[in-house]
Structure formats: structure tokens, C-alpha cells
Design a protein that fits this description.
Blueprint: E1 2-9, H1 22-26, E2 29-35, H2 44-47, H3 49-62
Parallel strand pairs: 1-2
Length: about 60
């Protein structure tokens, strides 16, 4: 099991991808944050950089120190 804090965007809406559920991801990771972005796609850094940056910032804040 990965002990490092992990974040998981359950899915950026993309009909080509069926992401695993958060509880499945949590089995092998120290899952501290899971979110469902309202929009985006396969390349969120290019398609919705504002949402990606916001999500990363919230993950950093929620990460135990």
C-alpha cells in the first residue's frame, strides 16, 4: 500500500474513460481527497486549468503535515 497522501479526481467528464470508484482506489492508496470535477476531459491541464489548479490547491491544504 502506498502510504503517501493521495488525491483522486474520480473523473473529469470523458465518455471514453470509465474510472475506478474511489473505494477501489483507497484499497491501495492513502486516499485523503476525492472529487468530481463538473467539467473537463481527458486533458484537464489543457481543457480546464483553473479547475485543476483549484483541485491541486485543495488537495495540498487537505494533506496532513
Amino acid at each position: 500500500m502506498c502510504r503517501s497522501p493521495s488525491g483522486w479526481p474520480s473523473t473529469y467528464p470523458d465518455p471514453r474513460i470509465v474510472p475506478p470508484p474511489a473505494d477501489f482506489v483507497a484499497r491501495s492508496r492513502n486516499l485523503v481527497r476525492c472529487c468530481e470535477p463538473p467539467r473537463g476531459g481527458h486533458f484537464p491541464a489543457l481543457e480546464v486549468p483553473d479547475l485543476l489548479i483549484e483541485d491541486l490547491a485543495e488537495f495540498i491544504v487537505s494533506t496532513p503535515r
